[in-house]
Each structure stands twice: as structure tokens, then as C-alpha cells.
Write a structure and sequence with these properties.
It is built from 6 helices and 13 strands. Helix content is 25%, strand content 26%. With 271 residues, it is an alpha+beta fold. It has a 6-stranded mixed sheet. It has a 3-stranded antiparallel sheet with strand order 8-9-12, with helices on one face.
Amino acid sequence: FPFCTVNDEPSPIENLGQVLIGERIQPSPYKFDFLTNYYCRYVCTKKFTSTDTNQQEMLKRLMKGIILNYQQEWKLDNIPIMLCYRNSENKEFCSRSFPIGCYVNKSDQTKKSCNIRDEKNDTFYIFNHLDFEITYHNELGETLGSTFGKDSSRIISAKIQVNSLNSNRCDRAAAPVTFQSTSKDIEIPFTYSVTIIKTSDIHWASRWDYILKSLPQTRIQWFSILNSLVIVLFLSGLVAIILLRTLCKNNPRCIQMVGTGTEKEQFGWKQ
């Protein structure tokens, strides 16, 4: 896809798990210094002219990716950058990926992840502006490890909000970047902002908690666990009874311990 890239920086080395699942990490041109806020930073501008066949093919590929709801996955300090929002129950839900754009079809219908409402139908929107929210932890007197100094800090969470702004100065009042299948010349500026937040409530060892709580597949299914335990106990008791009867069948001591009840069972009702 026609996004801003870095040509002179080597790609990070993947571990064995990332290689097995087919994950390939690429360096990002979005750079910032730790503990420094950035209101607006310009990355690059992608241009698509109607006379260039290759650029028009790239634009069509971008349109197809938006319709198919292609997602981006970013990482910072080995943790995923999450896209968080409130659902209908006013609970925070976080996703490990965010869409590359949004498409409003001819019936004025959009995807759930699209927060853009516009009167134009059959229109594509590209999320070219990213707002990063980085939370870090720095508590005095806490041991962070031998590789950290006394004034060192650690990143706790990384969140992102996507937006579409047709401005290379991050003008919030600017119109969104829109284009249609009949568009001709298009320019897409890519920008971002960074907000650094300090917290003392969340420790570095618990920085994955907000990610795990927002994912439904990681919630503990207490009913399933209780149901499994009941089935295991019932089957274990049944196997224990069968083994006890089998052992007592040829063991005189066990027959004496059982007593009269075993004798009646052996002779039957004809005694």
C-alpha cells in the first residue's frame, strides 16, 4: 500500500514464534523522543496523478484494501499499539489493529470502526493522521533492573486514535481526505501527534492487563470451568468405585471388611 516507508533502516529481527506465524516487522517512519510531546509532525505526502498508470493501480489497490477492511498492526517497546473506544455498554474495548481507511457506500453505510460521517456516498476516506497516547511509569524507590538507572522509566501502554485530515499541519478543522473511483489527482499528507502521560497506578509488570481485559477470548469462563470440574469429579468417583469392586472381588480382607452386605450380594435372593 502507498504509505510512508523507511528505506535506510534495517528491519527488526523476529523471534521464532513470529517467524512461524508469518509475522514480518517493518520499521516505521513515525519517530519521536521519549518524554516529549508533539502536537504535529509531518511524515510525507503521497501523490496520485491520473496520467501515471502505476499510481492509479496503487490507488485502486488502496481502495480495495479499504473495502475489505484491511488492518494495520503496530508495536512499541514490544507491546501492541491498541485502538481503544467505548462500546454501546460504555465499556472500553481495545483492538490490536486499526483500519487503514473507511468507505461509505452508496446506501450511506459504513463499517463499525469508521467514525466519519459525511453526506457523500460512494466515497473513500484514508486515515492519514494518527494520535499516539503513550503512558509510562516512573516510581521513586522502585527497582527497575540492573540495566536501568535511578531516573529510568518504562512504557506501560500505547494507544492510538485514527483520523482523516487534509492538512500537513494537523489542522483539526480541516476536511477529511476523500477520493472516489472517478478521482483524478490526489494528494495524501501523513501526519501524527504524540502525547506522553505519567502514571503511578499501573506497574510495568501489569502493563498487559488492559489488553487482556478488553479481549473477549481472554476472559475467564467460570461456567465452563465449573462444568468441567463436576464432570471430572463424577468420572473419577465412578472409576474409583469400579476399581474398588474389582479389587474386593479377589481380596479376602476386603470381603471381611465389607461384611454381610457382600455375602447377600453373592448368594442372591434364593438363599
